[in-house]
Every structure is written in structure tokens, then in C-alpha cells.
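Batch job 17 of 40 flagged for manual review because the log was empty.
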Amino acid sequence: MLSASLRCARRHTFLTGIAAMATVGTPGPPGVPRHTNRLINEKSPYLLQHAHNPVDWYPWGQEAFDKAKTENKLIFLSVGYSTCHWCHVMEEESFKSKEIGEIMNEHFVCIKVDREERPDVDKVYMTFVQATSGGGGWPMSVWLTPDLKPFAGGTYFPPEDGVHRVGFRTVLLRIAEQWKENKDALLESSQRILEALRHTSEIRVQGQESPPPAKEVMDTCFQQLSRSYDEDYGGFSKSPKFPTPVNLNFLFTYWALHRTTPEGARALQMALHTLKMMAHGGIHDHIGQGFHRYSTDQHWHVPHFEKMLYDQGQLAAMYSRAFQISGDEFFADVVRDILLYVSRDLSDQEGGFYSAEDADSHPTTTSREKREGAFCVWTAEELRALLPDPVKGATEGTTLGDVFMRHYGVEEAGNVDPRKDPHQELKGKNVLISRCSPELTAARFGLEPARLSALLQECRQRLSSARALRPRPHLDTKMLAAWNGLMISGFAQAGAALAEQEYVSRAAQAAAFLRTHLFDPDSGRLLRSCYRGKDDSVEQSTVPIQGFLEDYVFVIQALFDLYEASLDQGWLEWALHLQHMQDKLFWDPKGFAYFSTEAGDPSLLLRLKDDQDGAEPTPNSVSVTNLLRAACYSGHMDWVEKAGKILAAFSERLQKIPITLPEMVRATALFHHTLKQVVVCGDPQGEDTKEMLHCVRSVFSPNKVLMVADGDSSGFLYRQLPFLASLERKDGKATAYVCSNFSCSLPVTSVQELREMLSP
């Protein structure tokens, strides 16, 4: 399966047997009234971007399907997202062309889909594109029969034919001709393709398969990651290089379970070094905070500049864990950096989180064309003009600009390798990267490290003010339940690990937003998306999109994390309700594990189960851990059985290529080790209880769940877990018990004893 972390397609995927030279028209002159199509009535920022194309776009839905069948037309399906660079390129080159629009409208029913809004549609047809072309990406371009079966597809197509490429106009005309001349053959081919996809994409338990053994699966995954590890710069490839939080999360767990072994030490070193190199690199926005999508080079230097909410949420959690393990304030500072960015730039006033910021923007207010990274990069001349002040106490003649440029690798001619800038958008520009340690930079200019830190902070603030005057990149104000869940987990885990109550409060505010705007109390179901509307109000689609498996999984995970950080049992109660609903809507009782979509939608040709962790972990991977946590909080042991059945369904893949599912490998270890229920008996407001809780939260222990027994026998937890009534405070002090399968240790009142008991 294609990792969702892949950038929108840089290369084009060609259709065989279609070739001819073509010329393409250009958009109409300025001042001519713009065409408006049906997408103007949609809420998705991506669909609205295409509302003035001369293409007669339809949203995914029955109106388009009926038109295709009534008029016996093929469907052209275009899938992308609003911050996708190559989606913008294909729109400028082809979808804004009047001539190409006329061809599309004459021969096809054209449907535009936001992949973030409708991941179900995206996954079905991406499965086809990958299977038939060997690659994939966005924009995704697929041709369907009137009954929605795919028969041809690719990604980005250039408008004109080249020596080794076929142009979009040519593809359209040739496919239209094939439909006219060879309709029966196309229909037969599409049916064969669909049957093959059904067979190859099926994931189900084989015979009496049981969960795979944890040790072998963990060791194989560690060895595969270790072989792909970049010893110099961290990460797990040469280039492009992605953050891959799922790999880091696995390595932290591997260390926790093998901390006395050389392999455990290496796992920790790999994770911490990767996180440090990322934070020093250009993938980290040193002026505006947060992390860009990925690095185009081995050194984490030149990024693809879009910023995605799901990256911020997962990386906040990873850096929080790095701080828990190492105690190094460097990692805590990065957590604060990420959460500052999200709070300032990706937060709705009602409490939800927006989806993304684009990579492209206008370099100046008078620029006609957008450029990638324009909002973030600098010339040496700009920096000298902004930072001219002499630095007192430094080597004679030193300015703020000298210090800053030295530390962040700025070069007079720009520091971007031309090979990483094929369109010359970054020529003469600098992407900031920490080239020197603070100690080396301080020594170079005869400064004390503390003085250097203050100077660099002053420089960053000054550049931030200057950057605020530039045109900002497009902001995708769509709010998705799944990605909000990941961000809630980031805030909640950071609040617990760093003992920052404001982060826990922000997580609770976002969870309340989900309950208000992305949950239907009448049906008890989650909704997929909502949108920032006019006057900054929160709006919903005329027909709301129902939540998918990933929405349930990431929200449930977030609510468990939020309970452990806040001790508000209301979040726990909602999490268990949603877990029951997830079981009802998505569980496969025959093949085991969860489908990504619920049954009953005739427009979806396949019900799939994701089989590869990517930019986000697969929902089934996280579901295993969610089910184990749910069992600990509820006493419903059938959820443990369900977790085992998921592992059984993926057993073959886990044993052969566990590196494709590191989060599920991690969950396999937790399944076999059994989660520890850490119960603190005491008044949540008492200082002794707070000390106990701080101890539990400050220790990285992947196989624990935390709960507080406050003595209120009418509370939700006591009703779920009757054994809590038998646990008492010892000598009137806050007392901790470490339980396994509801059988508890002797009571502990010493924080030091508790810390030792928390080790796996």
C-alpha cells in the first residue's frame, strides 16, 4: 500500500498505448468573469480551490453517478488535497485550460475528491493505481466506467506530450476514443481488474492462526530498522527522508523492553539521534516553529514546506517521550515549540485544529506566481539588513547577523543544493539549519553560551516579525476528527510528561470541540469533518460525512491519553462508548480485524484493511493497544480477545515484513506482556497523590495504564471495575498498586518504590 507520507506526485505515471502530440490552450485573460461549477457549494478548501475551473466538476455523489449512467459516459476522477504542490501544478496547467476543460466536459463526467475528506474513496482507487502502475501519489487521476470500476489511471500528467511522456490532453482523447470503439473490452477489463483487486487486497485470518510471538517479531523489526538507519544523520533512508513517528515509537518501546541489552541501547540511540537531527535541520521551522512534511535530502535540510497537523501531533508525543526517557530539556523545548505553532497557527477559536498549511506562497504582495518555501527562506542580504546590530563583548566587528548566519548555515549565494531545487525556486535563498552546536558558535565569537542563546532568541523574534509581513501560505481550515485526535494525544501526553497543565487544558478544549461539532449524540457516531465558515463560525456539510475507522481509533486513543492526563472520567466513558460503536460498524467477524469503512455504501467497490503504517499508523495497529487499554478500564476481557484476533489476521505480514507495521509490532509486545494497571488511591487534589501521579507520568513505561481510585464508589470507574473498592490508602497516605489482570501488588507509598515497579 502507498504510504500516506508520500508527497503529492512529482513524477507522472503514464498510460500504455496512448501517444500523440498535442497542444494545450491557456486560461482566459485577466478580467474575464470566472466560470463557476458545482464545487462552489462544497465546504472542502480543496474542492473550493477548483470551483472556478472551466471543468464541469461534480463532488463525489449520486448526481454524478446518475449522469454517467444516463449519458453512458466514462468518469474522470481526480483526487488530491489543498496543500498538494503537484495538485496545484496540474490545475494551473490543465484544469484551468478552457480547451482541456471542453474535452473533459464533452467526453467525461468529472469528479473531484478531497482525499482528506474522503479517505475511503482515495484508498480504493489508489489501490488500483499502485497495482497497475507500480507507484502512486497525488494528484491521482483515474478513469472509471459508469458503474465506478477503474480501468486506467496515474498521478500527475503534464499538459503536453514530450519525447518520453504523454500529455493529459492526449490521454483524454485516446481514452474517449477507446470507450467509443472498444466499450465491451473496457468493461470486461474493468471487471477483471476489480476481481483481482478484491483478491490481492484481502486481509483475513488464515485457518487457526494465532497472534505471532512477540520476541521474534520485535527482533526482526528492530534488525530491519537498524539496517536502514542512517548512522550520520538519523532517519531510515537516504532521501527523501520522513519523520516516521511510528518507527520512533517502536524503538522507544523496544528499548523499554530490552534496556539492559546492547540492542536496547542502540534502539534508544537511533531514536534520540534522529529526533535531535530533525530538530536541528531545516525540516524544523526555526522561526515559525513546528515541522515541515519531509526532507528532500539526507541531511534534514531542504524540506517540502507544507505543515500537516498529523505530523505535529505525533511529533509532540515523540519528543515528550524522548524527554521522559532522557530528562534532556532540549526535547522538552521542541515539544513547546511544536505546541506553540499549533496553538497559534492551526487552532480554531472554538477549540478544534485545522488540517494543514501549504508549501507554496507568493514571495511578495505584488508577486503573481506562488513559489514553494517563499514564506520560510531568506537571502543573506535580507538577514544582514534585519540584524545589523554590533554584539557587545564579542569579537570586534561582530554583528547579530554574523552570529545568526554562522549558527544557521547561511551562505551569501544561498545554501540550497541546486539538485534539490529543480525549478530554481530557492536559488540564492537559505533554508535555516543548525550547522554548529551552541558551544562552537559561542566559542567562535568569544561569547558565553547563555549570552549566545539570548542573542539567537532575539534574532529569531526579529525575523518572525519580518516574516509576518510576507503573504502567508494557504491554510486548510478543514477540521478532521482523526487528525484532531492525534493532536489531542500530542497535547495530553506533553501535558503529562512536562507537567504543564495548560497543555492538558488545551487537549480538553479540543476534545469538547469534537463532542460538540464532530459527534452525533442521537446516533452515538462520530462525523469525519467540519469546516471554518463565514464569520469564523464552525460549519458542517449539508450531508455530513460519517466517521471512518481512523476517526474512531485516533479519537479513542486521544480520550484515553486525556483521561490519564486530566483524570476526568467523562473522557473515559466516551472512549468506551466509541469503542463499542467502532466494533459495531467496522469489525470483520469472519476474517477478523477492522475494515477501514462501514458496510452499505454501494459507491465503494472494496472494503479494505490498511496493511502498512505510514505518515500515520494504520488504524488496526492502534486498535490493538486501544482494545487492551479499554479492557483495563472496563473489565471487558472480550476486547483482549479482539486484540489477539487483529494480530492473528496480520500474523503473516508481521512475521515476514514487520518493518511495514512497526506500530502493530509494538502492540504485539504489549499484548504478550499484559498491560499494568497502575492504580493510585488518594485525593486527586492532595499533594501526596499529586506526587505519586507525577512519578507515574514522568516515567516512560509503554505497557501501563493509569487510573485514580478516589473513593467515590458511585463514579464511572468504580462501576466498571468493582475490584477498586478493595484497594485502600495505607496509613492515610496516597498509595499505589500495580495490577495485572485485576490482581494487584502489595501497596506502595514510596515514590522510589513505585518508580522501580513501573519498569517493564
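Reviewer: the log was empty due to a logging misconfiguration, but the result itself is present. The first strand starts at residue 57 and ends at 59. Unflagging and moving on to job 18.
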